[in-house]
């Protein structure tokens, strides 16, 4: 049985459940059985740890719920088994934030090319290091820091 | 008296053979120049007409009222680089637009243009089998398209070609059967009921067509019109090109004047199909005083048909390929059979 | 025996309204599998938002769903105003509602026109854009921008409505009612359009929910969910409008739902114009000189109904003048993910229409 | 004059070709982002770029003369823009539409936007604006036409 660490209301009047990440799948399964659907996944880099925020939604009761998990080793269990919507969301958060969703079958980058270095939405991502993308004849993309290999 | 014979008389000092040859050549050129000019005007009208339907103005900056727009387009296409794709099948790639172009030109030479005042008949070809020749040529044009599509080795072109072939097969049979019905009907004069000859030449059919065949067999007119839209491949039957799906179908990899040939072929087919419909079903150059102004009748009928075609072009969405094949085999083919039987019964009746 | 062709639709292709790439596996004409690649318009708006002041970020939201800019702004500003506990004066709220609905109409006009192009009808495109142009003239009058308007600002709107704008809107609404029916008639009078839309791109409601699909696509699958109705923002609870649904779940259902929503939008605008009160049009706390000093603390997630679905904005503020994290839950991103399911087994011509009926905007998918 | 000694005939021919070229610029539908909608508006009823001979928006790069790069070019898109440019036959022209294409625009601080498409392909005319109005794009097109007509006089 899952344990809710604390419960609060955020500024928009939404109920927030803080839970431990080991309870995540169990809690989500419970809510799935209550006809909740996944709306969005957000990762927030807090420098020493990463907050992963799930918004789930019940269409019958029109109830929005926010589930917060924090992780210090960048790893969170995947919930793609429960909702297919998580497939693209988790890929996006992996791409931009570098959160590894354990159990995701196809955890590739989605917005940036596969070879991209770093996760841009991290606070320690260096914007001054410019990366260039080139493409060979077959359409495969290559990333390098050397501007001569660009276009 | 025909224009050909008059030119032959002017050059009679060259001897019989040479003067006839020269006469054919000159008249072909004259006719083709006329066709080309009217063709330019046609595309100009199409653009203006389309713009008018779409609340636009259309070309109006190049020359007076934008009249020179097409000349500018042609000049540009001539000056354009013609890119050769790397994986092409060289000969097929180069020959395909030429086939389309030549076939289109040849088809125009076969048309009996009717009489015009002093010149007499403007027809170039006085063969007795122009109908057969005409539909032979109409079947050559798809070969150019298929060659062009397959030889470029592009997936879009390949898909476009597959569609074009499926389309051609499914409409050509109803088209030919409805033409057969015309040949049957024109084998007997419905004025006297006597058997007449010349049913395999376009001019023979026209000369017998006092009442337009479109009135005698409206079903045939419908089938033939639909088939001709498919042959000219504009919307709703532009399956081979389908701009929004396959970029531009079998012409995807063509550039410069080679593409220009296909482009001319497309609009030329619209014009040609209108000519054919007005010849076979709407009485061609027949009308009051047709030995003086028959040509004008033909021209007016054709132009009205062209405008109707353009209206269809801009207003109707593209049909899906499987629905089109259904249409061809399940509706057009049985209907054309019915039409054929009806034509036979009609001939029996007037006898 | 099967003949495989791998067709590459996109990134630049007339049928992908935006730039994404569909790698379609074809068995002759039948679609066996679709693989979607996105990210060609990834403009890192979320990163740049962290570098800018709260008030400056509106422009990046304008450019997310770039055809429906007003609703995007509204989505962002709702979040920011909730975060800052900023009251919005009554007049400003009504003005926002009018603008949001006008923007929805403008966006739909693009979508419907492009659908026409995709089925091979050239004409409706020009008529819909003519209507859109009129809306853009209203936007120019109000904000100076045609498409990316940047009209709303924190605590109100950039500029008050004057009589010219109100008259223009009234004139537009009066003309649009008839014009809409005319445009719809162009489509629905065509037998071929029905043939191509009915029964293609079927999306079952449970799949739609599972994938997080919202907006007209969800409503066309039979679920009457509309943020405007279910959790009203602005004054959507004070106006009468209906949420249309379709039972057919296919492309035609989506088209008809979109059209019916246009009629409802017109209804909403008419009621708004009648109820528009006098008063201030921005909150004095957010006057221009104080704008850069606005601070926010805490988490907030709000959502609005944009033209393609439920647009949610998550903002975390750390008590600074810049947001700590901004995340947009973009509807098109989710809607696009169901295209492979909708298209499987259909012909390639159906795939094209399905893509058109999803009406995903690349700017919002990739952000 | 290119060679100097070819005489009047060449000049006239070149002038004619230039005239044709400038009056029949068929644009490629290269809508990348927000500006694409304004490009469509340029094509549509109220502005109607067809008046200047740019009626036919070709979908295939092989058949188009003018590439209107409409919208932010991301780094991921840049090689593809370049390839499409290479697929176009000579003579070809490029209009950079919108500030994103000119120098990065509002996304200049980011990590994934090319700061100016002129780093990838040569640009003939720049049309600033975010997005430029259809009238501005039309003006850019007229400017390009003037440029083409004066090509051989250099």
Please outline what is shown here.
Chain A is an alpha/beta fold and 151 residues long. Chain A has helices at residues 24-33, 85-97, and strands spanning 4-9, 15-19, 36-45, 50-58, 63-71, 75-77, 100-102, 132-135, 141-144.
Measured by DSSP, the beta-strand proportion of chain B falls in under 5%
* Major sheet of chain B: 2 strands, antiparallel
Backbone shape of chain C:
globular
Query: What is the SS-derived class of chain C?
Result: alpha+beta
Number of helices of chain C: 15
Helix content of chain C: 40-55%
Uncertain stretches of 5 or more adjacent residues of chain B: none
The main pleated sheet of chain C reads as: 3 strands, antiparallel
Let me know the average pLDDT of chain C. Answer: 84
| Oligomer category | heterotetramer
Distance between the termini of chain B: 32 Å
Query: How large is the count of helical segments of chain B?
Result: 13
In round numbers, the mean pLDDT of chain B is 81
Specify the helix fraction band of chain B: 55-70%
What secondary-structure arrangement, pairings included, does this model have?
The complex is a heterotetramer of chains A (151), B (351), C (367) and D (154).
Chain A: E1 4-9, E2 15-19, H1 24-33, E3 36-45, E4 50-58, E5 63-71, E6 75-77, H2 85-97, E7 100-102, E8 132-135, E9 141-144
Parallel strand pairs in A: 2-5, 6-7
Antiparallel strand pairs in A: 1-2, 3-4, 4-5, 8-9
Chain C: E1 4-9, E2 21-27, E3 30-37, H1 45-51, H2 58-62, H3 69-84, H4 90-119, H5 123-143, E4 152-153, E5 156-157, H6 163-188, H7 191-197, H8 205-210, H9 216-220, H10 227-230, H11 251-275, E6 296-306, E7 309-320, E8 323-329, H12 331-336, H13 339-343, H14 348-358, H15 362-366
Antiparallel strand pairs in C: 1-2, 2-3, 4-5, 6-7, 7-8
Chain D: H1 8-23, E1 27-28, H2 34-43, E2 66-70, H3 78-87, E3 93-97, H4 99-103, E4 125-127, H5 134-149
Parallel strand pairs in D: 1-2, 2-3, 3-4
């Amino acid at each position: 049985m899952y344990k809710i660490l604390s419960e609060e209301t955020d500024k928009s009047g939404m109920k927030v459940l803080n839970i431990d990440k080991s309870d995540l799948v169990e809690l989500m399964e419970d809510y799935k059985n209550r006809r909740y659907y996944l709306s969005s996944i957000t990762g927030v880099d807090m420098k020493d740890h990463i907050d992963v925020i799930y918004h789930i939604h019940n269409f019958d009761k029109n109830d929005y719920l926010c589930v917060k998990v924090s992780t210090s080793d960048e790893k969170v269990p995947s919930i793609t088994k429960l909702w297919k919507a998580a497939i693209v969301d988790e890929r996006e958060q992996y791409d931009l934030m570098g959160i590894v969703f354990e159990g995701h079958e196809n955890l590739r980058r989605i917005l940036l090319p596969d070879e991209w270095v770093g996760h841009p939405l991290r606070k320690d991502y260096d914007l001054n290091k410019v990366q260039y993308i080139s493409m060979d004849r077959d359409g495969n993309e290559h990333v390098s820091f050397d501007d001569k290999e660009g276009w | 008296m025909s224009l050909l014979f008059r030119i032959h008389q002017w050059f009679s000092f060259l001897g019989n053979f040479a003067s006839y040859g020269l006469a054919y050549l000159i008249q072909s050129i004259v006719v083709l120049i006329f066709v080309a000019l009217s063709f330019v005007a046609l595309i100009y009208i199409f653009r203006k007409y389309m713009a008018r339907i779409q609340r636009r103005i259309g070309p109006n900056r190049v020359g007076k009222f934008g009249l020179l727009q097409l000349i500018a387009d042609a000049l540009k296409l001539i000056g354009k680089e013609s890119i050769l794709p790397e994986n092409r099948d060289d000969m097929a790639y180069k020959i395909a637009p030429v086939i389309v172009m030549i076939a289109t030109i040849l088809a125009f030479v076969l048309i009996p243009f009717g009489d015009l005042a002093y010149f007499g008949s403007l027809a170039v070809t006085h063969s007795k089998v122009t109908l057969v020749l005409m539909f032979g040529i109409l079947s050559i044009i798809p070969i150019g398209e298929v060659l062009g599509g397959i030889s470029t080795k592009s997936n879009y072109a390949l898909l476009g070609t597959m569609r074009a072939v499926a389309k051609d097969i499914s409409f050509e049979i109803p088209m030919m059967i409805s033409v057969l019905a015309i040949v049957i009907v024109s084998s007997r004069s419905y004025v006297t009921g006597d058997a007449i000859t010349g049913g395999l030449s376009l001019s023979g059919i026209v000369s017998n067509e006092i009442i337009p065949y479109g009135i005698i067999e409206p079903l045939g007119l419908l089938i033939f019109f639909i088939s001709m839209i498919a042959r000219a491949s504009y919307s709703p039957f532009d399956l081979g090109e389908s701009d929004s799906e396959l970029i531009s179908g079998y012409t995807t990899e063509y550039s410069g004047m080679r593409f220009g040939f296909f482009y001319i072929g497309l609009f030329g087919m619209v014009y040609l199909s209108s000519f054919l419909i007005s010849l076979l079903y709407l009485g061609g150059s027949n009308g009051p005083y047709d030995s003086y102004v028959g040509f004008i009748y033909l021209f007016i009928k054709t132009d009205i048909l062209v405008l109707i075609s353009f209206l269809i072009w801009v207003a109707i969405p593209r049909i899906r390929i499987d629905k089109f094949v259904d249409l061809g085999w399940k509706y057009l083919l049985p209907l054309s059979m019915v039409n054929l039987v009806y034509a036979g019964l009609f001939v029996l009746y007037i006898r | 025996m099967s003949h495989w062709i791998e067709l590459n639709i996109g990134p630049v292709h007339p049928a992908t309204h935006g730039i994404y790439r569909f790698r379609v596996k074809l068995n002759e004409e039948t679609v066996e599998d679709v693989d979607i690649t996105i990210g060609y318009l990834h403009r890192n708006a979320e990163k740049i938002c962290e570098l800018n002041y709260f008030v400056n970020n509106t422009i990046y939201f304008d450019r997310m769903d770039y055809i429906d800019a007003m609703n995007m702004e509204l989505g962002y500003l709702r979040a920011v105003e909730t975060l800052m506990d900023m009251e919005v004066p009554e007049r400003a709220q009504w003005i926002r509602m009018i603008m949001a609905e006008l923007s929805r109409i403008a966006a739909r006009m693009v979508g419907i026109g492009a659908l026409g192009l995709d089925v091979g009808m050239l004409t409706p495109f020009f008529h819909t854009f003519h209507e859109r142009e009129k809306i853009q003239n209203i936007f120019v009058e109000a904000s100076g921008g045609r498409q990316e308007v940047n009209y709303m600002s924190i605590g109100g709107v950039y500029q008050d409505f004057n009589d010219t704008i109100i008259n223009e809107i009234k004139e537009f609404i009066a003309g649009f009612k008839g014009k809409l029916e005319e445009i719809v008639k162009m489509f629905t009078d065509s037998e071929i359009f029905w043939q191509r839309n009915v029964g293609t791109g079927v999306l079952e409601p449970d799949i739609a929910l599972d994938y997080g699909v919202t907006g007209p696509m969800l409503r066309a699958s039979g679920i009457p969910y509309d943020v405007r109705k279910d959790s009203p923002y602005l004054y959507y609870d004070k106006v009468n409008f209906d949420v249309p649904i379709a039972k057919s779940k296919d492309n035609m259902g989506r088209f008809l739902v979109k059209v019916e929503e246009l009629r409802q939008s017109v209804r909403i605008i008419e009621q708004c114009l009648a109820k528009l009160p006098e008063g201030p049009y921005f909150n004095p706390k957010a006057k221009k000189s104080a704008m850069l000093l606005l601070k926010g603390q805490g988490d907030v997630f709000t959502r609005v109904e944009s033209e393609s679905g439920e647009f949610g904005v998550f903002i975390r503020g750390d008590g600074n003048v810049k947001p700590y994290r901004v995340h947009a839950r973009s509807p098109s991103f989710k809607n696009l993910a169901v295209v492979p399911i909708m298209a499987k087994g259909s012909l390639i011509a159906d795939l094209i229409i399905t893509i058109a009926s999803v009406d995903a905007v690349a700017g919002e998918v990739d952000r | 004059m290119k060679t100097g000694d070819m005489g009047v005939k060449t000049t006239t021919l070149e002038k004619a070709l230039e005239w044709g070229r400038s009056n029949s610029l068929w644009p490629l539908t290269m809508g990348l982002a927000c500006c694409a909608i304004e490009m469509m508006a340029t094509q549509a009823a109220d502005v109607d770029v067809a008046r200047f001979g740019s009626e036919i928006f070709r979908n295939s790069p092989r058949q188009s003369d003018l590439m209107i790069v409409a919208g932010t070019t991301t780094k991921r898109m840049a090689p593809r823009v370049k390839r499409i440019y290479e697929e176009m036959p000579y003579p070809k022209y490029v209009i950079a539409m919108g500030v994103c294409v000119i120098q990065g625009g509002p996304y200049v601080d980011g990590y994934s936007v090319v700061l100016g498409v002129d780093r990838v392909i040569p640009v003939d005319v720049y049309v600033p604006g975010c997005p430029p109005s259809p009238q501005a794009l039309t003006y850019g097109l007229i400017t390009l036409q003037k440029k083409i007509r004066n090509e051989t006089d250099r």
